[in-house]
């Protein structure tokens, strides 16, 4: 990783320089903020707070904006709603101006939901990764590049709470207080490392990326599924997961608050060991997990799901593995697909070497998924064009394609230490 000049001890950032602004929850206040923002100069720093772990939806419950000369503003989006004229006006303001976000893929969906669609992006987290910094959270970046420490004590609170406490608003305001200055620091690192064009391509690709398609059989991602081998157990998991998801969506509650994934798995594994017909049976199964009262509020629904799954004919049970065009797990390539495993070992090793030379994480230099796909099904023409067709940026394809082309000629595996086990999609 690139060396960064040692800085003095970080100074805690306790509050915004101009104080915590009043929350914007009326059209009059929103219009005034828009006028102030329009009078500013340079990029807009954005952040958003969601109620992850509390709510089903990923909507924004607070939006923070700061612009040089345009003030710092905290907008409560709930009184306005998606597509409100004030959000339309805000979106018009940012169309030809850079928007700064930290970890943009987390906040862009909820910003777009209300009608904010940036055209020009600078992501300080991704920029830090490409620059070669080892720690790229907002706090570590501020410490490393600006000698400022940022408290994170309110990062996991329920932002749907109203009214929002002053301490929470102060915390939220600090997330954008120095974001413009941080952007400039990260940008200079990228320029010095001759990586600014790489970052620009990556930022543009985030803006242009279509929404992710719905997952196939999302219930298969239930935590603990690796312990489930029987298809009748899978049927129980599927029925409970789907019922929980529908109820959580209806109530706008995080599914895990209604019933945890681990609880679903344990219920499934116990479903053919004896009847589960009432609340007491469920209590007995769930008590070792640290039973929570809310898990049993919908006991009748869970029992109905179990009953339906048990009564289901075998031909309606889920398949052991979903039908997919996904590649086989890497762990079986050596024995069953040696002609594909050999190139993969060379590709992995030499790409890692190149990533270290360039001071960039391998996964940012080229997606490991694309490397596996190239080795699994080598293109009949250009590796470079194949990578571009699969979504790689041009700079990534230029670096990776010569290494992959050479790896595809190898017939004997490279005996090197295996990397940590990769997560293989289950859907």
Detailed description of the structure:
By secondary structure, this protein is α/β, with parallel strands linked by helices. The chain has 3 domains: 11-208, 2-Layer Sandwich (Nucleotidyltransferase, domain 5), CATH 3.30.420; 218-316, DNA polymerase, domain 1 (Orthogonal Bundle); 330-407, DNA polymerase, domain 1 (Orthogonal Bundle), CATH 1.10.150. The protein contains 19 helices and 8 strands. The protein has helices at residues 27-38, 85-94, 104-114, 124-131, 138-146, 166-177, 179-192, 196-208, 231-251, 255-258, 261-270, 279-286, 299-310, 333-336, 338-358, 362-365, 368-376, 383-389, 394-407, and strands at residues 11-13, 23-24, 41-49, 62-68, 71-75, 98-101, 120-123, 148-150. A 6-stranded mixed sheet has the order 2-5-4-3-6-7, with helices on both faces. Strands 1-8 form a two-stranded parallel sheet. Strand 4 and strand 5 form a beta hairpin. Helix 9 runs antiparallel to helix 13 (299-310) and helix 15 (338-358) packs antiparallel against helix 17. The longest helix is centred in the middle third of the chain and has 21 residues, at 231-251. The chain is flat, with a radius of gyration of 25 Å. The model is unreliable at 421-427 (pLDDT under 50).
């Amino acid at each position: 990783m690139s060396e960064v000049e040692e800085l003095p001890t970080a100074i805690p950032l306790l509050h915004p320089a101009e104080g915590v602004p009043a929350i914007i929850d009326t059209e009059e206040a929103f219009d005034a903020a828009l006028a102030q923002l329009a009078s500013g100069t340079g990029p807009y720093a954005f952040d958003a707070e969601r109620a992850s772990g509390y709510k089903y939806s990923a909507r924004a419950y607070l939006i923070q904006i700061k612009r040089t000369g345009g003030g710092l503003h905290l907008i409560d989006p709930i009184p306005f709603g998606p597509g409100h004229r004030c959000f339309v006006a805000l979106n018009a303001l940012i169309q030809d101006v850079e928007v700064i976000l930290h970890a943009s893929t987390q906040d862009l969906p909820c910003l777009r939901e209300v009608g904010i669609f940036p055209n020009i992006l600078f992501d300080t987290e991704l920029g830090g990764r490409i620059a070669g910094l080892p720690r790229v959270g907002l706090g570590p970046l501020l410490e490393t590049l600006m000698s400022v420490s940022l408290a994170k004590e309110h990062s996991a609170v329920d932002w749907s709470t109203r009214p929002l406490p002053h301490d929470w608003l102060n915390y939220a305001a600090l997330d954008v207080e120095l974001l413009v200055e941080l952007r400039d620091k990260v940008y200079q690192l990228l320029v010095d490392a001759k990586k600014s064009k790489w970052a620009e391509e990556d930022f543009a690709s985030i803006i242009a990326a279509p929404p992710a398609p719905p997952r196939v059989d999302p219930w298969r991602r239930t935590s603990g599924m690796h312990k489930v081998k029987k298809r009748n157990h899978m049927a129980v998991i599927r029925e409970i997961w789907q019922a929980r998801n529908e109820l959580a969506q209806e109530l706008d509650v995080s599914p895990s608050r209604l019933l945890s994934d681990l609880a679903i798995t344990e219920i499934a594994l116990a479903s053919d060991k004896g009847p589960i017909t009432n609340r007491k049976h469920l209590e007995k199964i769930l008590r070792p997990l640290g039973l929570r009262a809310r898990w049993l509020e919908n006991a009748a629904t869970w029992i109905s799901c179990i009953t339906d799954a048990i009564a289901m004919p075998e031909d309606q049970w889920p398949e052991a593995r979903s039908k997919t065009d996904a590649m086989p797990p890497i762990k079986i390539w050596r024995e069953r697909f040696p002609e594909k495993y050999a190139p993969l070992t060379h590709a992995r090793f030499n790409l890692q070497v190149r990533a270290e030379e360039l001071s960039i994480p391998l996964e940012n230099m080229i997606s490991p998924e694309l490397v596996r796909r190239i080795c699994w099904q080598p293109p009949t023409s250009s590796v470079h064009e194949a990578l571009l067709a699969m979504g790689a940026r041009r700079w990534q394809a230029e670096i990776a394609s010569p290494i992959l082309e050479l790896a595809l000629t190898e017939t004997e595996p490279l005996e090197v230490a295996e990397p940590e086990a990769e997560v293989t999609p289950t859907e």
